[in-house]
Amino acid sequence: MAPPLAAVSLTSPLFSPSSSRPLRRRHAPPPSVSFQTRGRSPAAAPAESSGSPLLEVRGLTASVKETGQQILAGVDLTIREGEIHAIMGKNGSGKSTLTKVLVGHPHYEVTGGTILFKGQDLVDMEPEDRSLAGLFMSFQAPIEIPGVSNFDFLLMAVNARREKSGLPALGPLEFYSVVSPKVDALKMDPKFLDRNVNEGFSGGERKRNEILQLSVIGADLALLDEIDSGLDVDALEDVANAVNGLLTPQNSVMMITHYQRLLDLIKPSYVHIMENGKIIKTGDSSIATQINEGGFKSIALV
Ligand SMILES: Nc1ncnc2c1ncn2[C@@H]1O[C@H](COP(=O)(O)OP(=O)(O)OP(=O)(O)O)[C@@H](O)[C@H]1O
Ligand SMILES: [Mg+2]
């Protein structure tokens, strides 16, 4: 079934002028990030982090709109410019819900707390406006958009952003020269541009396509939900290279993953652990190593 337009708009990677800035590899994880413990604000920025806050989430609670079931139970998270944050946690701990609430997914209702994005209150903003403000989400299970070609979808998204910035719309030919090198960089067959968005795409192809959207449209903050799931080893490397190539000192990534292998390719500044709708621990990539070796039980009591 075709998704409602509002849902479609959620997939629009927001592009931002920053996407055309020169690219530079992000800083390595700060060595002295201390572990956060339950009950403390997990996202207090360490002294060495100098970027401005992009996303500030405080005491965020959210429920499923239809049933009122609470999923997020008080999330605190700060993401500054130039940082890469990884979110890990058991199945059902609320990771995807957090990203969906951040982009304004219509299935969820914010019941408490605040979300600031570049100082703007996100909670009452429409999903489209969040997207235009520079927030991008790649879905754990990317949706199909029947009847809309990948090329047209990307062109529409790029031109919406250009319009907002007062720039003239790009024509198809002009846009092709923009999108083509990105398709090549992701080692995608250019034929994917003519296919309807995600229709008939394999799981791995959908993931690659999400990153194509991100690389064409750009974002100040990209929320990547399990971009590594379903990718073969080579595809994972291509996708990670593409994400790394988009990083600038001004933009940031929040990536959800279950696996350390992604964090070996895209080095996080911070790793957060979610449990029961909250971030219960924050630290550096050594947390991921610990989980990899001993499971979540190995960190639960630390
Ligand atoms: N729309 C919804 N309706 C009912 N329950 C929901 C809804 N959205 C989320 N949930 C429930 O909230 C909990 C958190 O779901 P979420 O998808 O955020 O988990 P997750 O941490 O991303 O898990 P995974 O690692 O398996 O992807 C789950 O128990 C899920 O069933
Ligand atoms: Mg999930």
Automatic annotation (TrEMBL):
Boundaries of every ABC transporter domain copy: 55-301
UniProt biased composition (Low complexity): 9-21, 41-52
GO CC, alphabetical: chloroplast; iron-sulfur cluster assembly complex
GO molecular function: ATP binding; ATP hydrolysis activity
Biological processes annotated in GO: iron-sulfur cluster assembly
UniProt cross-references to SMART domains, sorted A to Z: AAA
Xref: CDD domains: ABC_FeS_Assembly
Protein name from the UniProt record: ABC transporter domain-containing protein
Organism of origin: Sorghum bicolor
